[in-house]
Structure formats: C-alpha cells, structure tokens
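Fold these two proteins, one after the other.
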Amino acid sequence: MVSSHIKVSAALRLYRGFLLLATPFILMRLWWRGRREPEYRRRIGERFGFIALRGTRPVIWFHAVSAGEVIAAAPLIRRIAAQFPDDQVLVTTMTPTGAEQVDALLDDVVVHRYAPYDMTFAVKRYWRRVQPRILLLMETELWPNLILQAALESVPTCLINARLSARSMRGYRRFAIISKPMLALLEHISCQYPAHAERFQSLGVDPRRLSVAGNLKFDRGLPEDLDQKRSDIIAGCRLQGQQVWLAASTHHGEEGQVLQCLGQLRLRFPRLQLIIAPRHPHRAEALVALTELAGFTVGCLSTMLKSSEKTPVDVVIVDQMGLLLPLYDIADVAFVGGSLIPFGGQNPIEPALVRTPVVSGPHCFNFTEVAEKLVDVGAMYQVNSPATLTETVAMLLDDATLRERSGAAGYAEAMANRGASERVAKRLIELIGEATQ
C-alpha cells in the first residue's frame, strides 16, 4: 500500500489556494448552469461534503463523472456489490445525467451521492462522513486533494478503465510538479490498452502498479426494454418505412454541418429522416431554432412521443437522456459526434452493439484504439468535412448489403473485446480483501 507519510508540496498548496479563491466563481457557475438544468441546483451541499450514508457498514467508493462512465462501470459495480454483500457501495458522480444512470442501472445495489469539489475543506468533510476502505476512480477522474486524502488515511486508490491520450500525457507532463506525486499515490491503474499503460509509465508510474484489462464499455448489456423503446420511438416519430440517419452525441458546431449534409442528402433520399441527439439535451431549444433556420420542419422527441399528431417532421431533436441505444437500433446509419470538432469523439461502441454502421469525424483521440479497431474491420468510416460526410452517409444509405456487412463487423468486434469487467473485478477483489486485513 502507498505510504501515508506524505508532505504537502508547495505546488499542491498553490493548487489548494487557487481552488479556495475560485469558490465564489464555482458557485456562480453552478447557479448559472442550474438555470438551464435545474438538477444542478439540487443537493448542492453534497458537493461541499454535507452528506449522510445509510447505517455504519464499510464503504466501497466508486467515482464516475457522468452518464457514460456509470454505464461502463455498471456491470463491474454489480459484480463487486455481489462479492461484498456486507459492504455499502457508494457511487458518486459530478453530473445529474450520471445520477440518472445510477438510479436507472444500480439503484437496487448502491447509494448515490454527488462527489465533492476538490477543495480541501469539502474533501475532508466528505471523507469524515464516508470513511471508505477503498476509492475507485473511473477513467480520467484524477483529483489531487481527493487522492492525497485517501493516502493520508492509508486508503488504497485505484484508477480503473484508465485512458491517457497523447494530448493528455503532454498536459500532465507540463504540470509534473503536481501530477507526478499524485500518480505516485495510486495503488493500481487498470488501463484500457497497452498504449495508455506506456504513457502512464512515461510519467513515472511504477510498472508494477499498471495493468491492461481492456475497455469496460464493451461489456455493456442491452436493456430488456430495448425493443419496446424502439417501437415507441418509431410510432411516435412516424418513422415507419423511412430511412433514418442518427447524429448522436453532437456538440456545438456540429449540428449546422449535419443539417447542411441533410440538405444534400434529401436530393437523393427525399424520405430520409434525421434524428439529432445532442450530447447535452438542454440545447434542444437552440437546435430547434437552428433547424428551422435551415429550412426544415422539426419536432422534439418528448413532445412527439406524447402527441397524437401524425404529421412527420424532417428532423427530430432528442431532448431527453437514456435513449441512445434504441435510437442507434433504429438508425440505418449513425454519425457519432464530438469528432467533427477537436473534442475527441464520443463512444462508438454503442452503435456497434446493435449492428449499426458508424461514421465519425477525424477527431477521435478519446477513443483512438476503439476507432482504429472499428475502422480496420470496416464497421466505422472517418470523414473530414461536410462534403465527405455527405458522400459516406449516402454510400451507406444506398447499399443495404454494405450496411449489413459493416454492422455485423462492428458487432463481432464488440463481442471479441468483452471481458474487461471480470478481469478488473478479480484485481479489485484482491485489493479490497487486502484493505480489510
């Protein structure tokens, strides 16, 4: 176990001072974001350490920032909860969408709370109330004060499903005065791919504390109500007999390009239906205005599902969470966003799980290895402009055999990469057992 005899460096003191000075601005941002997403204004006290848990059972603490990380970790969390039935499993998130996924996928086996901001007073107060015997962080959730507090309490901290892009590695290297001692406090880092482990090692992480288990996102199961949700969306959006193009997890700056492509595609596929599912559903109102400005009729999914109106629209805007899998299942072709802009891409595994061919932009550095695998087997097509996006989507819409072959290749690749949850679980069971001795 990492030694708890730790000195607080001058750099960390500076980091703490900066966060303390930033507290009023963090509160203002929280309030401002709450104007559009009211959930951000609820349970604010938890973010500053004012929480309570059920009973006095030992706590296993998982932290996942948002919805995607919760979905990926859900099979692993269930496995650990079943292995340690006498423990209380706490799952923390930073976003309300993450909280919604905890409620939907894990409500019967875990307790959810919002995680503390990484301010010294908030972390210490939170810790006194939780007192976990292990802290498990998902993917990139590295917070210096939280990790330091765990080390001071001699509680092992693990980073699971860890990923480290070349860009992120350069960022950590620039701030090595904080990142190097923080990484040294981690008991174990379970990486998605060998390249990620190599980057962590280049930052000074002891290779004995590194392993490669694969990507937890491949282990996602299909929900039991998938077919029902699919049928409801087809009926509510009047999609019977139409070809469907889904633009999923899009970001600001991408929807305009997608709508430009739709104008060109409609010349060849006049009945083509576009569904836009933005990464942040609160942007739906702005996207309705953008779509109308582009000259298309538009409706919001939540309204269409409730309405008896039978007139179809050109574009459906998805204004609610939790529907990506049935939407991918409906789509003939899916564009995965965050990739036409230099955001790094969103998860392309989900469409592969339901055999839907994938198109993305060139910026997929958050999913480099996954994108390469899917491109290599012909399940994913990368484009670099609205013109090539139009051409590629048209090619797939025009060839049912190609769509079927691409979808089957993606599904086969997804199935071949399953098993990370069990591999990580075995290592965590060992560590949790050691933590109780």
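Now the second one:
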Amino acid sequence: MRICAIHQPQFMPWLGYLDKIRRADVFVFLDNVQFKKNEFQNRNRILVQGVSQWLTVPVRFAFGDTLREVRLPEDTRWKKKMWQTVSQHYTKAPFFKEYAEGFRDFLFRDWPDLAACNQASVEWLMACFGIDTERVTCSELPSFTEERTGRLVEICRHLNADTYLSGAGAREYLALRAFEEAGVRVIFQAFRHPVYPQLSPIKNAPFVPFLSALDALFNCGGGFLNLYSTNPS
C-alpha cells in the first residue's frame, strides 16, 4: 500500500496537518490553487496571554491569484514584529530555546511567493518533529484536471499511490466513486487533538486547541507527535 496525502501549503500549520503528513508515504503541496483570504494560507494562531491570537503574514494579491502568485512585502518590519511576538510570549516555554534560532532563521529568509514561504514553514516543522515523509510540489508535476476530485485522483495515480488519505471534513464533497473507478482507496484521517502542558499566565487556564504546531513544539518538544497514535479510518 502506498498512501498519498494532498494539501495546500499553510503557514505554520496545526498538529493535525503534520499528523496527516507523517501517516502518508508521499505528501503533495498543492501550491497552484487559488489563494483564499482569511483562511490558514497566510496566518495561524498562537497563544498570547492565555488567548488565541492570529500570527499573520501580510500579502499582496489580486483576486484569482494562486498561492504561487501571491507576493510578500519587501518591507521586513512584519518579520521583526512576528519574531518579537513569538519570542515574547514563548520565551519561558520549556523548549523555546531549543527551536528559537531555527524559527528565526526561517522567518528572516526571503521568499519569492507565499507558496514557497508556507512550504518552507511546513518542512521546518517536519524536521523539528522528525517527520521524513517524501514530499512533492504540485506545480512541478504535469498538469492535471481542474475538477477538485479528479485532480486528486490523477495526482495519486501519477505518484503510483493506491490509497488517498483525506481529512475528515472532505467526506462531504469528495466524489468517492471517482476514486473507486480509478482503483484508489480512500481513507479518512481520525486525528484527535491531544491535550498537553501549555504555557499560560492564567492560573488553571483551560487548554486551547487547534493552534499552530509552534505551540506544541515550544511547550513539549519535537518528540511530542510520536506519543500519540490516532489512525486513519
């Protein structure tokens, strides 16, 4: 069995995104799809004073631009502000010092577009969490159909994958018959968000889930994901 997972590159994504990658044999960065404002393509959340807060990459785009066409500003003040925010609120986290330099090195690099920035953020997190799944960038592959399910099927077949690992939320729109007709089995991710020790200035603060994986990395270290074994269905 060869499992393929496919997803748009997100900025510093959550643990479930990384869990999907580590359960696949090959992961495809779907970098040539349309940018969607106010989603997770150019932002994610961290914990600030015990409250979820957005960490945003400013972008320049026109309606209809793909992730590869979205540009980042040349002015680097946003990078300095992001670094200050992250370092200020995680400096006392148990593993911040171990990973702070790597995060800062990533942040202050120059990126040609949002897709490249996001993919690099994912690959840095993969390295931190010890995930060595093969990865492929969709724009470097042959052209595929624009139809949503058909494109996924064609990518799987091109990569010789007989199984597609999908997020649970895709049950509502995937045309499963198209996979069946192509001889590709579909399994759905069953990730259950773990609760872990979370740095907060608020005494007995409730756990805040669905943050960027930066939160788990700085609080629990790179071996954290290996402690949890949720399985696709």
